[in-house]
Design goal:
The complex is a heterodimer of chains A (about 260) and B (about 180). With about 260 residues, chain A is α/β, with parallel strands linked by helices. Chain A has eleven helices and ten strands. In chain A, the strands form three sheets. Chain A has a four-stranded mixed β-sheet with strand order 3-2-1-4. Classes of the chains: A alpha/beta (about 260), B mainly alpha (about 180). Chain A: Pfam families: Ada_Zn_binding, DNA_binding_1.
């Protein structure tokens, strides 16, 4: 290589000018961001990527949260200046709205379970078996429990609204006590639901409309006490001439029929 | 060294320092190796993510010995070569002109146009080099690495690097002259 050759120098200068700075958005494709936010539980920490909210945990300090995130996502986690738009209202209202979630890294079944749980309205609960049917695997009730236990974004996907059909509230990522606290804060009549389930009543029908609902369905709560009828299960309700509610879907149709 | 010191403290904070220090060389190298802006973003993001995952498993001694630039560019070169093997089995992407470099807002319009013209021509010529020659020329003259570091990054002897660089430059010059002669 002769450095005195002007053509060669022009070529080298041209090559040296081919450098380019990384676009500003590149870092956000690599690293997630973290914030601490106010919400229905104390010490809520949230991690989000350029695709959406990826991880929500309560009761961990910054180092514990970072290490839990790293173990699960193996991605750098940097502080954020502010929470992503829509996060704080979603936590306050219990409704996701347009807030995007980043659910990469979940299995197809886990994602289907979370999508089913996400449809349960604030103030209502559904049994694990209902989620299993909605997720397309009616027999996988225990697996639904594990999938909900691995929910990376509790509160945003309200796995606390999935309860056991025997009347107990069941497990929760943040502990059973937090689950009960969240449900009461959403005006779920936990005592009544528990009491009914213990008496073997899992569905409530109206003898004026002939429609049968989960007890926490908004329609069920409007039935006047004199017109309420309790049922053990859907078969018993169907035998009495009742059809399942189209809002709370106690028949729990699979994803294709939904 | 600043980056290594930061990495030995807090891994996430250290990664941010590492990224700030080397995003330019990593992205420039990626861009000139693969020739397309969007692909260069994928390549750089993947390389930095792999680097982070490797760091998670490194002990303090391994981190203390780290020479971050050569290490990062080695990861980038491996990701790029793996991609080449995958791409060989896929249909070719669109022409280079699909993704022109966005202009630098700090540059004057005329300067930018001139730089863009030369840059685009040179970038196009680089794409015509065989992969090994392009990698050596880009690392030597775009990323400005010494030959010894390039040998480490590409995992070949220094003599091989030198010969790839000089053959690559000779070929670029020939291609350039042909272009000016109107053969293109």
């Amino acid at each position: 290589m002769s450095s005195t050759d002007p053509a060669a120098d022009a070529l080298l200068a041209g090559l040296a000018g081919l450098g380019a700075d990384a676009p500003p958005a590149l870092l956000d494709r690599i690293a997630a961001r973290r914030v601490e936010v106010e919400g229905p539980l104390e010490h809520l920490r949230v991690a989000f990527t350029d695709r959406g909210v990826a991880f929500v945990r309560a009761g961990l300090d910054e180092a514990e949260f970072a290490s839990a995130f790293r173990e699960r996502f193996a991605r750098p986690l940097l502080p954020a200046a502010r929470p992503p738009a829509g996060l704080v209202p979603a936590l306050r209202t219990g409704r996701l709205g347009d807030l995007p979630l980043d659910l990469r890294g979940l299995s197809g079944f886990e994602a289907a379970v979370l999508r089913a749980a996400a449809t349960i309205p604030r103030g209502q609960v559904r049994p694990y078996a209902w989620v299993a049917r909605r997720a397309g695997r009616p027999k996988a009730v225990r697996a639904v429990g594990s999938a909900l236990g691995r929910n990376p974004v509790p509160l945003l996907i309200p796995c606390h609204r999935v309860t056991r059909s025997d009347g107990s509230l069941g497990e929760y990522v943040f502990g059973a006590a937090a689950k009960e606290r969240l449900l009461r804060a959403e005006d779920v009549d936990v005592d009544e639901v528990t009491d009914m389930a213990r008496r073997g009543v899992r569905l409530v029908g109206s003898d004026t409309t002939g429609i049968v609902c989960f007890p926490t369905c908004a329609d069920a709560r409007r039935i006047a006490p004199s017109h309420r009828r309790g049922f053990r299960d859907l078969a018993a309700a169907a035998a009495a001439g009742y059809r399942p509610c189209l809002h709370c879907r106690p028949d729990g149709p699979g994803p294709s029929a939904a | 060294m600043r980056v290594v010191a930061a990495l030995s403290g807090d891994l996430d904070g250290g990664f941010a320092v590492l990224y700030e220090a080397y995003r330019g060389p990593v992205f420039s190298t990626a861009l000139r190796l693969c020739g397309r802006w969007a692909e260069a973003e994928d390549l750089s993001a993947e390389a930095f993510l792999r680097a982070y995952r490797a760091l998670c498993g490194y002990g303090p001694e391994r981190i203390a010995e780290l020479r971050p630039r050569a290490w990062l560019l080695t990861i980038l070169a491996n990701v790029w070569r793996n991609g080449l093997r995958t791409a060989a089995r896929k249909p070719p992407p669109g022409p280079l002109e699909d993704a022109p470099d966005p202009p630098d807002p700090a540059e004057g319009v005329e300067d930018a146009a001139a730089r863009h013209e030369t840059g685009r021509e040179l970038a196009g010529l680089l794409a015509a080099l065989p992969d090994a020659q392009r990698a050596a020329v880009v690392l030597r003259h775009v990323t400005d690495l010494p030959v010894a570091e390039i040998a480490e990054v590409l995992g070949v002897p220094e003599g091989t690097v030198k010969s790839h660089v000089s053959r690559g430059l000779a070929r670029l010059r020939r291609l350039h002259d042909q272009g000016e002669g109107g053969i293109r």
